[in-house]
C-alpha cells in the first residue's frame, strides 16, 4: 500500500457521537472526505440530520441516529441498527461531552452525575456496545476525545476534570484488553478549540486561557481533525493506549 493510501478510509464505517456541531461534526465530515461511510449521533436530531446531509454531499453514505449515550439501551439499539444497515463498525469516536463551571460545594448531585455519565460512562457504554462487533470482524479503532483537564486540574471544573481523567485511564486499560483483537484505543486532547461556546465566553476568560497557550490562540477544527484521522487509519499501526494533543499548557 502506498504511503498516502494508508490515510484513506475507503470501505470503512465510522460512528461519531456528539456529531451535530463543532468538533464532532468536523470529524464526521473529515472521515467522509477520506472515504468512510459515517453514522452520526446526538441528542439533537436536527443537528445530526444536517451533518448527515453534508456527508452525503461528499459522496458517502450517512445515517443520523438520535442517541443519548448515558442510556445503554439507546446505545445498544443504535449499534444494532448500524450493523443491520452497514454490516460493520470500524471506527468509534467518543466525542459526546458536557461540562459545568461551579465550585464543588455548589454542584448538585444530578449535575455531577450528568457530567460523569455523559463524558465517561457514555464512552464506556459505546465501547461496550461496539466492542463485540469489532472483535467479531477482527479489529477496529476507538478514539476518545479527552482534554488537558484530564491531566491538570482546574478550579471550578471538578466534575469535568474527573470525567476526562477517567477517560484517559479507560483508554489505557482498554487498549491493553483489546490489543489481542487488533483494536487500537487512543485518546486525543484537542486543546482549547474555537467552538461556538468559545466566542460566547467573556473577553477576560479568553485572555486568561490564551495566556496558557504557546500559540496564544484557540485551535481550529481543521488543525485537530488530521490527528484524529491518522488514529483512525492504517497509517497508525503501532500506537495504542496513548493520550496525544495538538498543543500544551505552559502552566
Features:
7 strands; 8 helices; 251 residues; 7-stranded parallel beta sheet
Structure notes:
- This protein is an alpha/beta fold and 251 residues long.
- It has one domain (4-245): Rossmann fold (3-Layer(aba) Sandwich), CATH 3.40.50.720.
- It contains 8 helices and 7 strands, in the order E-H-E-H-E-H-E-H-E-H-E-H-H-H-E.
- It has helices spanning 22-33, 45-57, 72-86, 109-137, 158-178, 196-200, 203-210, 221-232, and strands at residues 13-17, 37-42, 62-66, 91-94, 140-145, 183-189, 243-245.
- The protein has a 7-stranded parallel β-sheet, sandwiched between helices.
- The mean pLDDT is 93.
How would you concisely characterize the structure shown here?
This protein has helices at residues 22-33, 45-57, 72-86, 109-137, 158-178, 196-200, 203-210, 221-232, and strands spanning 13-17, 37-42, 62-66, 91-94, 140-145, 183-189, 243-245. The chain has 251 residues and is of the alpha/beta class.
Mean pLDDT: 93
Q: Considering DSSP H and I runs of 4 or more, what fraction of the residues is helical?
A: 40-55%
The largest sheet, given as strand count, sense and whether it forms a barrel, is: 7 strands, parallel
User: Within the CATH hierarchy, at the fold level, what is the topology?
Assistant: Rossmann fold
H-E order? EHEHEHEHEHEHHHE
* Morphology call: globular
How far is it from the N-terminal to the C-terminal residue, by CA?
A: 43 Å
CATH architectural grouping: 3-Layer(aba) Sandwich
Tally of helical runs: 8
* Sheet with the most strands: spatial strand order: 3-2-1-4-5-6-7
Q: Helix- and strand-based class?
A: alpha/beta
Radius of gyration: 17 Å
Strand content: 5-15%
The CATH homologous superfamily is called NAD(P)-binding Rossmann-like Domain
The total number of structural domains is: 1
CATH class: Alpha Beta
Report the count of strand segments. 7
Low-confidence stretches: none
